[in-house]
Structures
1.
Amino acid sequence: MTAGFATYSFLPWLRSGVATEITRRDGTRTGAPRAEIPITVELDAAGDPREATAALALYGPGEITGIDTRVVIRAAPQPGASDAVPSELPMAEFDEPDFPWRYTPATADARSRLRPWLILAVLADEDITEDTSGSADGWLPAITVTRAAALPLLDQSWA
């Protein structure tokens, strides 16, 4: 008699609501920064049934102007820490596990992989040439990176 083994998969990008209707596969190049979902409404006007269809554009990464610090429930090293241990893995844990995928304007590819709209990048001081702080009028902080090789490979960000 052989014992059965369960297989578990972690899919934090699973969606609910209208986002389940996104049909663009991750990796498909469309140039559109948002996912559009066709919505059909059926109306009955005094016995005259009619349908109306419109494209509903979902929020995409371009609409994000800031991240509420309350969504980050744990981070290592702590912001502003000057004694971080270089051999320890940096991380950010979110209150809602789907947050890094929530605004990705695509659905998983044929291999069930979906790249997030948000990634964690760890850079050395020498890899940054310019550091701009955010402002009260909605501008996010920004950096200029000297070498593209210092950034993580985006085709592996699904992992």
2.
Amino acid sequence: MGTRVDPSAGISSGTAYAIGYTFKIGYNYAVTVDMGYTATPSTAFPKLTLSTRTALPNPNDTDPIVCGPVNNSKWISSIGITKAVVYPSQQAVQTYSPSAFSVSAQQNYLVLTISDGGASTTTALINKVTITETASASFSISSSISSLACGATTPADFTVNNVGGSTGITGYTWNLGANNGWLYQGSPAPPTIGTGGNTLQLVPDCGKALSSVSATVAANGNNYNTSNNITIAVSQPSYLLDGASSLCSGSENYSITGMVCNSTVLWEAPPSPQATLSSLTTSPTILTYAGTSGNFTLKANVTSCGVTIPVTKPIHVGAYTSSDYTLTGNNGSIYWCPNQSMSYYVGGQNASNYNWTVPTGWTTLYNGGSYIAIKAPSGTYPPTGSIDVSFTEPCGATLTKSQFMAYSSSGCTNPCYTYSPNPAPYYLNVNVASGCIGSTYIRKIELVRASTGVSVYYQDYSFGNVTSTSITMTSYPSGNYYLRIYDGSSWSSYNVAH
């Protein structure tokens, strides 16, 4: 592409080169040109001009003769960005990259023009022209709600936001996907919905999983996807498995409370020798005792809003046996010491009518049904005995539990602990006796109210070598208490007053 000065008119002219390419509204364009020159002009630097045109000029639009050197004013239009070229050495290639541009109306040609060559003629050698097209339109989507509870049918309004301020918009396509969980105008929403406006209202189909929502915008003959999609967060319900925890005989209804519409339930079958279910897919369902007593966990998997949640309940079928209950006390030891106070309790399901029998010479301090506090004789006779309790299990049978007890000096108070004052009106100070420091520590300490057997104070010092501590007594009712101290291997018990 040559530059020249017209010898008769003294007009700087040059050469234009047109490339057919469609420049569209709503896109940005960048053009790079790799080129060199045959020679460096002696008096003036030629300029490379890039421009776009909807149509090419008439061949007569040249100067001074038809098909002669181009007239810049005739050929340069839309962009018309000129740049003075810094010349490299002869025939070397350099890249010219002007700023990105967009067009306000469709253009069909890119025009490269070389002109203003001064008195000398210089030839530009075009090696490569690269056009890069990127969408300039920008759209996002937003929603009137961000979260809802599973089962809610609160309408959600979706809006496409014209972030880039694009013009020429002709329609919106809302993308929901199949089985999307939404209702549109009272019916299940189709995978896509076309609208002329930028808003859409959808209603959750109760209890179903909700798909995300995005949109595609048609503008100036092009389609643009929103830069984001909207997913509504759904919180799950709380379920409860309702029904008796004990089934002595016959059948019982069991159901899931808290299920929302369109939920499904799948029960896991119980052990067949113990029980059967009338249905594994409905709520309520009927559990029937199958003849073998025992314990199992009844389980239902509830699915709603696309999430499956397990719901469980421990069940006992048939009559209970004594092995279903425990009798514990005295920290697991069978040994006792004169005047020692201790407590026992029955553990297990829903028993009643507790009847305690204490060993000969022992005194009952408190009888709380499933719990009893007792005191050992002042001497060591009789050295053995047992504490017994009978009670009624939920199916009506009478069961008995028994614990053997024996005197032993190992069950007596640890002489390495001291406590004062007794009674303790304000504070009860507990210490390791001076002769035991270095070999004995306070690992745990507990204060139990004698009249109720309720622990009112407990402190764990397992990870420290504690030799002294204090209990504030002012907040406790007046009366008798058991002070219990653990040395790491056994507990010692003392009677204190407040």
3.
Amino acid sequence: MVGQRVRYLVESNRGADALRAATECSAAAWWCATLRGFSQHTLGDYEAADREFAAALSGMAHAQRCHWTDLSDLLPDAARKAYRAVPCEQRDSVNARIWWLADPRWALGGNDLRTEVYARLTMSELVQQARSAHDLSWGDDMAQLMLRYGWPAAWSREFPSSVDPTRISVIGHEPSPSFEFMPDARALKDPAQAEASSWTPTAPTPLTRYAPKYARRFAELTPQVAWFVRGDSAVIVAAYEIGGTYDTVFTRDSVEAAVAVSRSPGGVGIARAQTARRGVFVLPTASSPALLSVEVVDNAARALARSRFSTQPPTDSSLSDVLLFDGAGGIPETFEAATARTLGTLMVSRQAPFGLYWELYGDLAQTDSITYAVSVERRGASWLRRLAERTRLADRPEPVRVAFDERPSRGEVSARSLLVDVSHIPAGQYRLTLSVQSARRAVSRHVNVEVR
């Protein structure tokens, strides 16, 4: 009966009492570990919950472990068939990749979505041993609903109708607001193809939902990320900004921010800062593709903003990415000065110039003469705007173009900056291109920007 005691304490939001009851468990070792993990998850100690559930899984009978580790009902339709073809005995590595990608916050210890799913499986075991509030027999359909959406956080009752005054209708209310953290099938199959749009936490019709204790509000970040070569390795510059449109999500000026770089399950490098609404991180890392997760949380307001996507260094290592910086301070002379002024988004203002910073390496840095060309050309104009331009009801924006010759500094790294003025072009989506040409070859970099 300790299981029911733990359950009712959890439902009463008495997680500490539930954990004390679970530690007094004298049933099978796997079940006692399950109850402890269930209680730890309720308390928000996800690392401890992860350890307890892992111990529980190792002690389960084969059939039950296969049931608990079957994630097919949580996956997008396009990924489910391939997943079900994997035998239970070979599922561990596949599951590790899924949980790695679906983890809501890499910067948070443990994996709270995984422990949430195991907590739901625990609750599913417990409700089968007691009468349902819905007064229905437990079945696979109800178990699947609980697995996908969790158990009710509250209940309400409708008054009996005059047609059947003896019938009582009970309604369960799931935790809200809740979000979808499972990525799409493409990212699950090949994480190197993952884009920020691979995750849709606020999707209107999600396959699964989860209401984290730390996030009653969620927003998607649009950070700026750029790679720079440092010998045999690299640094990633990642900047975010949560001003303006984020004011309904974040209520304070001080937030906790983190940038996590990962290339495989279990391997996550994290940089953290207690910072303001704008932040810049410079992370040393290997010069190879990785997943990047930028995470900003306001614990007091229970607000989370996140962006996660695959990123890679430029395939031609002679030219860095292009970094956009605030042009108000003029031309920076060093990498450190440029990164300190990095824009937190790829949105630029027509009201003031913005800056571009880049670096040359290898033979490009050693050449006698370089021709630089920068252009800002419109992309994705609406059909209405195009029609207005064709009928001369609106001016066709002229692209911004500038070109000049220069001799690099001829060191191992040659850095360059310039300011760009877009005050004469209309707001909209643009493609910024930096072209670098020497006597032997030409290299270019592209950045999609929004002009406001």
4.
Amino acid sequence: MMEPQPKELIDQVTDLPTVPLLLQRMRQQLATHGYLSVLSINVMQSGQVERVTGWKAFDAIVRDVGRFLASIKTLHLRREDFVSEVMISGNAFVVLLAAPRRAQQIDLADLQAVRDRLAGKLRHFLARRLPPEISERFTCCVGASLVRNEPEMRPERLVYRALDDAQADSVEERRRAAQRHIVELRDVLTAGLVRSVYQPIVNLERPDVLGWEALSRPTGGTFENIEQLFKAAYEDQSIWTLERLCREKAMEGLGSLGPGELLFLNVEPDSIDDPQFRSPQMLRMLEQAQLSPDRVVLEMTEHASVRDFTAFRQTLTYFRSLGFRLAIDDMGSGYSALASVAEIQPEFIKIDMSLIREVDVRPLKRELVDTIARFARRTGIQVIAEGIETARELEVLVELDVPLGQGYLFARPSAPPPQPDLALLSHRSKRPGPQTPQGPGPHTP
């Protein structure tokens, strides 16, 4: 059990000891055992994460990581190991490993094995703690260093060498992992190892289907989800190639749509500038799938950054002139949504599942959904509630006059497109449902 520490030496976000206590412990271990074995844990992020989550939510994530590191001592580390929070690069933590019980000092191979186990546990923790679109913007790297005492060198220099070496090892591990992912990504792109599944978007006021969202899934490499694949594509600057592959697979597996049904295609804003996306080849692909542009909705996530809205609007005007419609995904999961709605002027906005989950028991969520729905009705935008999982969530959304929805309550994504369960909607009156605008909507810039 760690002894009580002065309050001023404890980090206010993570509740962990800070650098002064760490350095003191390292000097003691160096003097007693003649060596230092250190792990450096770096939770790195892209520049967009805090903007999307907000600084309070980001601090909560950092706090959870610190508590997780402290909690795993009895399971994967030892009570004698010392966990500290340090701000070396981004959000960094250090574990000072105590001397082994049966050996004079830890072996480098054993230290690296501990490093790899801890890295795996941390990645798993972040994947469970955060939604995919956020967790995949974090890179959790663990580095290790083993420094032996050198009598002619000051202890402070050895202490800082151990910290620097562990930090450098974590950065190198990040580079190696990124390189492995890029090699696997190129194999995926070459072999076309992506498939599409489809989830229905249903009218909540009458039991029928508005359209289908095509969702991409990796089928090769060690990628656990599509977010990891896109992260590697951005690092490799091959996002256009991956987007082309995803569009091709979405068209291939769709089959025939019902009368008036739409296809929702996820599009990264960066891909709007892809010349192939704007070429006749795209229209030929739609023709082969027996689709016209006015039956395709380009769905853009607010998590992606638009650097030049003026040029972006000009490109969107071109797509609208062909008949495509636009949707903003994940409304309510970040801070850029209102600006995106004003600039893009979409025909559809999709309320993020984080707001829909437990909307029946969380009054604040209900008020937020109600506000979005009323805003959309006044501006002529169609609202789609994502992630509906319970009958009670559905009831509340209908009470709030949210016209469209999708989620596991109706069907899980699958291929070919599944038959949705509309039993919960069948008893509702057949009053007119949300009208689907034909061609470019009233928001055309």
